[in-house]
Write a structure and sequence with these properties.
about 575 residues; coiled coil; single chain; 33 helices
Length: about 575
């Protein structure tokens, strides 16, 4: 077992920090220890630093461990990755040198070298590494995947990444594989490089004529550039090919939905063989399109096959009836679900319908019965408390909402979902100490709960001045999921709150490129506004309004900036 993995497991086993740190402090000086002891001690210290969210310390400890463990390429790799995440270029460079000595042919090493060169704005070094990756025949010729990952992670210098991608295109270095061309085309779009994306699309069309996935990329590129009619024309030409290709059918429907046309997406899904999954997707899309006539036709078709007590079909019929606003019929369908796992979901939905019918007392009584139902599975009983709390919130019954959470936690002590939901409820009430207490209760039982690390870190960054502590929590989440846009957004926001505006912009732009989200748009707009880039800030605020005009973060950003 690798040393780092071994000690990672020890740290999660409940052994107290104080005892282990005492052991470290009592250890003999490095000069007196054998190399194995140096490696174990430094690795253990690195793991503790990681768990504390102190990435700079973790990078230095892992570098020491890698130096002590002669020939261990794995420790050198881990030291390099942590140092890159910590933005510690000196430690990253030292770890990469060790890694190269021990595994010179590793494609992952070459990708790390490219990443380091990009961080340093070293165009020549980055291009040399990218060319080596793209020409490599190791790992079955998949060096392009490593090149793509290195370019895609170059958040500090997106213009440099775009320029290098253009140079690779000029040099005809992208391998003649459809998947590679599609991936690099998608990267150009994420880098917000319309002209470069158009070049790649033109090249891939010439190389792979008639390939539906190329047409989809073309439609996506046109949509991103604002040419919606031509994008729609390409999708219309693909529809016939979806009849016997379910994956393509889903992709074309998704692109129609991205165009803001859920009705067309539903029509595409109606082609070819149908099952309850496709029916459910169609119903959701038709509801979003507010196509009552289309929903009505789908409802009639589903009813014709509902004579037998199929739980899944009856549950689906209840949902479609809800979409149609036929709440009484929806209630009948939900109450007719005979058994199976669908029965518990149907009972939850029935309570929701009762509430929509202004029969709140009956809704809450139904949820109380489900909470006490011994035969119900635990998730359904727990979800009954969550739903009750949500319905109480809709009724503006603050006391009832919190009381539902309290009863739920009495039945399911320290349940993460209940604590997380209550933590968010406290945050909405501006009661940050109680929100923090609930988030920390989760972390006591699940110290690696990524969503909670991120939520608590973001809350402390956004609602307190405890920015260093917030950064440590967010860094712990970043170690686990470095490419998660929500975590990158939190990282950017805490950097902004720390006064590191330029670094914040790099991270927030990367987060928004990965996920078009109103909260990320609000954060990016606010940082730009404060930095004097008001025209660009307004563009992101407008993007946020289009995505969700009622987003709380967006409203707060607009109020603070006066935009």
């Amino acid at each position: 077992m690798p040393v780092s993995l071994c000690f990672s497991r020890i740290c999660r086993s409940g052994v107290a920090f104080g005892l282990l740190l005492l052991c470290l402090s009592a250890a003999p000086a490095a000069s007196a220890r054998a190399p194995a002891e140096d490696t174990l001690g430094a690795t253990l210290a690195g793991e503790f630093a990681l768990q504390a969210g102190k990435l700079d310390q973790a990078a230095r400890w892992y570098l020491e461990a890698a130096r002590a463990a002669e020939g261990d390429a794995g420790l050198a790799e881990r030291a390099a990755r942590i140092a890159l995440l910590a933005d510690d270029e000196a430690s990253a460079a030292a770890a990469v040198r060790l890694w190269r000595q021990r595994a010179p042919q590793s494609l992952a090493l070459r990708a790390a070298e490219v990443t380091l060169a990009l961080r340093r704005n070293d165009e020549r070094g980055a291009r040399r590494g990218l060319e080596a990756l793209l020409r490599s025949r190791d790992a079955g010729g998949d060096g392009w995947r490593y090149a793509l990952a290195a370019l895609g992670g170059s958040g500090q210098h997106p213009q440099l990444a775009a320029r290098l991608l253009g140079q690779l295109l000029d040099a005809d270095l992208i391998p003649n594989q459809l998947q590679a061309w599609l991936a690099f085309g998608g990267l150009a779009q994420r880098l917000d490089q319309e002209a470069l994306a158009a070049r790649i699309v033109a090249a891939v069309i010439a190389r792979f004529p008639g390939e539906p996935r190329v047409a989809l990329l073309h439609a996506s590129q046109l949509r991103e550039s604002g040419n919606l009619e031509d994008a729609r024309r390409i999708l219309a030409g693909l529809e016939a090919a979806t009849d016997d290709n379910p994956d393509l059918r889903l992709s074309v429907a998704a692109e129609y939905d991205a165009l803001g046309d859920p009705g067309a997406a539903a029509a595409v899904l109606a082609r070819g063989p149908q099952d309850d999954r496709s029916y459910g997707l169609r119903a959701a899309l038709l509801a979003r399109a507010d196509d009552k006539a289309g929903l009505g036709r789908l409802y009639e078709a589903l009813q014709r096959d509902a004579a037998s007590p199929d739980p899944q079909r009856r549950l689906l019929l209840g949902q479609v009836a809800e979409f149609l606003g036929r709440q009484a019929q929806a209630l009948e369908w939900y109450r007719s679900v005979p058994g199976g796992g669908e029965r518990w979901q149907a009972r939850l939905r029935a309570a929701n319908v009762l509430h929509a019918l202004a029969r709140a007392d009956e809704a809450y009584a139904e949820l109380r019965r489900l909470q006490a139902e011994a035969a119900a599975d635990e998730d359904a009983r727990r979800d009954a408390y969550l739903l009750e709390a949500e319905l109480r919130r809709q009724d503006q019954d603050d006391r009832g909402e919190l009381e539902a959470y309290a009863r739920g936690l009495a039945a399911f002590a320290d349940d993460a979902a209940l604590l997380y939901a209550r933590g968010l409820a406290w945050e909405r009430r501006d009661d940050i100490p109680r929100a923090e207490a609930d988030f920390r209760r989760i972390l006591v039982a699940e110290p690696d709960n990524i969503a909670t690390l991120n939520a608590l870190g973001y809350t402390l960054a956004d609602r307190t001045t405890r920015y260093t502590e917030a950064l440590e929590l967010i860094d712990r989440a970043r170690v686990a999921e470095p490419d998660n846009p929500a975590i990158i957004d939190s990282y950017g926001w805490v950097l902004y709150r720390l006064g590191r505006h330029e670094e914040a912009l790099v991270q927030l732009r990367r987060a928004f490129a990965l996920q078009k989200d109103p909260e990320i748009a609000a954060h990016l707009g606010e940082v730009l506004w404060v930095g004097g880039q008001k025209d660009e800030a307004r563009r992101y605020f407008e993007e946020g309004r289009k995505l969700d005009p009622d987003n709380r973060a967006l409203k707060r950003a607009l109020a603070r900036t006066g935009a």
